[in-house]
User: Fold these one by one.
Assistant:
Number 1:
Amino acid sequence: MKKFYALLPFLGLFLIACEDDTPIDTPDPTPVEYTSGTADFTKYVAVGSSLTAGYSDNALFIAGQEASFPNMLAQNFALVGGGDFEIPFMADNLGGMTLGGNQITENRLILSFLGESPAPVPVSGTGTTEVSNKLTGPFNNMGVPGTKSYELLAPEYGSVTGVAMGTANPYFARFSSSETATVISDAAAQGATFFTLWAGSNDILLYAVGGGTGVNQAGNLDATTYAREDITDPTLFAGVIDGVLGTLTANGAKGVIANLPNVTDLPYFTTVPHNPIPLDEATAAFLNSAEAYGAYNAGLAQLQGLGLITEDELAQRTITFNAGEGNPVVIMDEDLTDLTGFNPALINMRQATADDLMVLTSRSFIGTLADPNNPTSINGVAVPLADKWVLTPEEQDIVETALTSYNQTIAGLAAAYDLAFVDANALLSNLNTNGVQLGDGSVVTAEFATGGGFSLDGVHPAPRGYAIVANAFVEAINTKYNSNLPGVNPLDYTGLYID
């Protein structure tokens, strides 16, 4: 430090001497000249579901729509001749929609600090987005939250009357060109020169977020028989995406298509631990006694001795609690051997393992009372959690099989239609495993509420996450079409809406 101070007089003389020198002109850096390459961004249309619309924090609202990845892309496209990008904006930043004055969708989530720990809760207020107030289009962002692949082709999917009957989509009903229009017909009518397509996530996701309570419809091509939570048949999925691309490229439009992420990389399935139960010695001893799970364990052992279940299944189903932290929850598992015909008390329950994925919403249910008048009826302890609260390994395998097929289809069609391709599956897997480092040295991760990559619903990206997605699209476009679009700076976007 003394040596540094000793240098100060010399530095002062140096600065004084420089005052008399002629200033040195520093030439401005040569501005980058952006080019569209072989693509034409004059008319850009984005097709997809909630991920395209800008859905975030369990709702669609103005700020989220402004931070959608297609809107970010459109701003880049404007540098090379891209035209206006019209968005069917919601009426406010609450996100809840009404029909006939009655609210039919929830407001967006915010982080509440009123309880023992921060928790997502819907923001207060009544939304002013009335579904029956039709917007005048056309709109370039054709992302429709909740849409499954085959619903992109469904007539009357944008019918206000159909919304009242539960057969149409309220988001699309706000801006569909007619009561009988399809999402794709409205998209195609705009004569796009360039498009993005990121569709099909709900064909798997709705099954997964429901804890696998839906049905795997592989082999069934009749979508009219599907429930919302069912997994779409892969052949039907392939035919729909092929048809959508055929329509979008009919007039020579170029574009980019993205594959689908694995649900196991989403905070919705990675946040709640399988073993969150703390117990004291007395409670653990009671749960292990013959008055509680001891009798269940003994019944299992008896039937295993008769050869009705294997030793492995006996070990899997045996329920044991310990004093202290880290006790696994008790869950129902439909894939266990049905023993109720031999003993009605031996229902299909077991304790969860690290291979089970607890859904995000289970965090506010585990530990509550199934019967308010019975203090021992603790959900996840004395009362096993229903199937909807957990995605078991068998259900994860069903999801993985469908995902693999869907993504093979998407990659094949990208090649067949000569489109740019985004591996969103790898992108979000890397975000979950390693995080994405930004220019300031910070890292965006998939950590719930704090990682900056995902919003409070645990499924949809936060604005900063959408910026990372947008850059993956830009990279794919530049590679395929020899453009040099600059992309976006994720640091320009928040990692979490704070109000």
Note: The first helix runs from residue 2 to 19.
Number 2:
Amino acid sequence: MAVADTTTVVVDDEMIDPVTGEIIDQKELAERLLAQAKEQGVSLTGPGGLLSQLTKNVLETALNAELTEHLGHEHGGTPIGENMRNGTRVKTVLTEIGPVEIEVPRDRDGSFEPVIVPKRKRRLDGIDQIVLSLSARGLTTGEIAAHFDEVYGAKVSKDTISRITEKVAGELAEWSSRPLDALYPVIFVDAIVVKVRDGQVRNTPFYVVMGVTVNGERDILGIWAGDGQEGARFWLQVFTELKNRGVEDVLIAVCDGLKGLPEAINTTWEQTVVQQCIVHLIRNSFRYAGRQHRDAIVRSLKPVYTAPSEQAAKDRFEEFAAEWGGRYPAIVQLWKNSWAEFVPFLEYDVEIRRVICTTNAIESINARYRRAVRARGHFPNEAAALKCLYLVTRSLDPTGGGRARWVMRWKPALNAFAITFAGRFEKTTHE
């Protein structure tokens, strides 16, 4: 099929015909091309399809425009110097719609360096993003290669896919040392268990520190590999690193009673309140409960952690213990053992409680991590596992920063934090 000439000029998002100077109706143009393709029996996708030919035309037009700018004269014009056009060479590039064969223009002295399709590059940047996105979902290099073969009809080697994903190693190092905000109203410390083959397959915890910024965004501050035996020294290194990256103060740190963690937090930031994570407390309660009773247990516990005061919470907990203590005494004991770390939660305004106890914000990122980890099964080493977790983090935010909204109604929470932590809040955010 001979595709109609699509050479146009774009001005203020309008396509202008360079010959007539008229605005081209893009919908009308698309309909005309589709009708032409249908008449000639050309498919929309696939090798030789309409999209493939349009992509070929666009790329070749862009390459010729680049060469014109490089040489300083139009095709057929008078050369400014000795350098001039010198034919074309055929090159196949991998695009989001599959492999496309294009003719790349050349110059006589070989000084032309294309930007849109660089020399020695046989795939467009969009392909790299597809590979990274699939990798973030836990697909192996073999599975990604099979995906490209099945969906795009393109052969992409495992080595090529590995090279693409290895590019994020430098990005990961930069991300792990990037400057952080001076104040985080809340940080959460959580663990993701990953199977790592180090001689033998072992369960390795990777600790994720998530922060809520003063703008109400979820910010993944960092990811650290452990061995399950972490204590105060390990956590002090983690929090000292965060402090050295700019974190001057944390108002509330939410964690799950990890050994040595509260002491390390208060050594780093003396005034930080260490709070037992309500999400983890509820989740840990499920370990001892039958699946058929979980919904009922959550309903019975909700009056406890939504109580207006500590005394009211104690009264509601006694009612919970009377209802469920006979069947599940371990759950009652779990809450009693965690009561001292749970109590600070009851002193906060309901808006602050909502931020601390927003299960969706915490569980959404955890679900993505676990999905990717389960898809892979196990990793050859800690570096490979860390790369996968970073790719998941990277996918949260189109800018690659790993930030996303925490709660929609952030302003009421912001006001509650400013009043509850008056002085500390203004000092850090206004400097």
Note: The CA atoms of residues 310 and 346 lie 6 Å apart.
Number 3:
Amino acid sequence: MRADDLILFAQVVDCGSFSLVAEQLNVTNSVVSKRISRLEQDLGVQLLYRTTRKLSLTEAGTMLLTQARHIHAATQEAFDSVAGMGEQISGTLRLSVPTISGELLLAEAVAKFCRMHPQLRVDMSLDNRFVDVVAEGFDLVIRTGQLNDSSLIARHLVESEWLICVSPSYLAQFGTPNAPEELSQHNCALYHQSGATADDWHFRRDGKDFSVKVSGQMRLDNGQALRRIALSGEAIVFLPRVLVYEDLLAGKLVELFPGQVQKTLGIYAVYPFTRKAPYKIRCLIEFLREQYQRKRSYFNSQR
């Protein structure tokens, strides 16, 4: 049995016509018909009922179709993975990335990618603003959180876990909250993003979800500034783990309620919908995914 005959069988079923497939492959109808007949002979079963108006699957054809489609998809994926490898990575790419990832990882990673490909130029904007990928002419955007735009293609890079942290000096002065509910009695600096302030902090304890309304004297739209406030001992903050990972290791900050905080957001590489992304974009996405995965422990506590 030949794998290309299985692929042809899947194509015939999906097109619903021998002639359409023959036209796509630039062969005659008889060639397609003979190859399907050969497949049926090899298997010893009939796969298709043929009439002058339509094709329909037999029971055996229905059972075979799923596997034939898998083979077709795997073959296409294999071709796509190497398509364009002879192309030179050159020209200009416009990127929009959030400030935290840009400052901590992406700027250096993109610089390494550019060194590997001297003919490439990258115009990178570090901004937490929710950009319009198509209207603003970006080739690639790094986004965190839920993706709703079906006109965009997304590639998952890593899961970003958030945590509540505070400096030892704050705890020494104001005491340690023993339960999430006690946070309402403390000064919490709040992260203000996209016009909304996150003053409901979510938790899970004993299998039940709940939230605590917190408040504080300051609201900021910059994660690094919130980190500095925490380090100064002025407030409790709620931030992505990656932003304070090294501070936690050094003992400059302490994590509160580990395992109870309920906020994890996916980080994605997003680009406009096309049948197949340009080779240089595919290469950059794969390179960035490798960089994120190497520092996965910075982003979440799951090993």
Note: The chain has three domains: 3-82, 91-159+266-299, 161-264.
Number 4:
Amino acid sequence: MARQKLIIAGVLLASTALAGAAWADPVTVADKTLDGERLEAGIYPSAPMPEGFAVPDEPAHPPFELDWSIGLKGSYTAATGGNSFVTTLNPAFTATHQGVRTDLVLNGGASLARNTDGTLGVTGLNLQLDAVTALGRDTTASGSARIGLSQDLPGAPGANPLVEVPPQVLTAALSGAVERRFGRFDLSVTGDLERTLYGPTTRTDTGLTDNSADNVWQGDVGLRLGVEATPIFDVFTQADIGRDWFDQAGTSGIKNDATSRSLRGGVSGSWNGLLSASASVGVGQHDFDDAGLTDITTRLYDASIAYSPDTTLNLTAALSTTIEPTGADVGGTARVAHIATASASYTVNSWLRLRASADWGLSTVEGSGETERRHGFGAGADYKFNSRTALSADYAYSHRDNSLNGVTDSHSVSLGVTLKR
């Protein structure tokens, strides 16, 4: 019993000593006293961070990634109507924003030309904004807005020989699409609205000619339904309805306002990202409001194929049929055009790329009897001096047989240099 009392007494003495030490002077760490604020409720002492282990602040990223380029090209053309040399300056830029759900791309460019006679002109201006956003796991929305100004050079190969100064063409357009996936089904809705304005033309037969009768609004709505027939092939059907509104009647006193409808069906396929193809056939109608104009009904063909076995080789081909307004300095009510194109590119190495292309076309202007057949091909090469400078060389041949303007053959050779960011 005496021994137990001694043990208890020793424990009490040790506890008293520890309590006294706890209420003594504040604790010191490396000769630095912790102040009272750091021991308040919710504030805890933090261990010192060695200077070599400090994590630097991440730099702020700009909202857009900007790329730009500027090209200077000279082209010599030998054509049936004569020879010409044209120098063009082509600045362009691209601003890209990659967001969490929405991606934005803004593209802009211009083409400034100097003709053989020394005249300067703006042959092209364009600005376009594209947006893609994910509305859900199976739903995607996209849209674009663009505006452009263009003017052909006087005496261009295949142009109307009666036109001395071609008109300026101003175009503005809005388009949108929503695509939704339902299991094996794919449904998409598209809409487009476009406005086209034509400036006056200087002609040898009528002088300064007003083209305001060709100014037009164009609207179009489309619905496409596809079903996954196999893991490779999709079967689809597509219906479109459109409307053309002209500002005023032409010289004949009749406005070419019309409603267009089309229905087509086809099949598309994709093989491991190496080969993709699509083909469809259908029928299209272009019904004019005025009973004095003959309505148009035609077969519609559409096909495309792309083959890229690796990053060095890319082959594409396409076939399409369109019904569209004739534009300025062309008679008739509407143009029906069948166009086929093909292109190939091969990257030999990091500094040399080879290119080739070909095209074929057949168009008919309804209400005037004008027809045009054309074909052509070209080849070119791009040589990179470094990551920012490239030299391009091209050759192109074009043949046009127009029932009103006759046959035109042209050979063009061009050489240009491009600087980019």
Note: The chain has one helix and 23 strands.
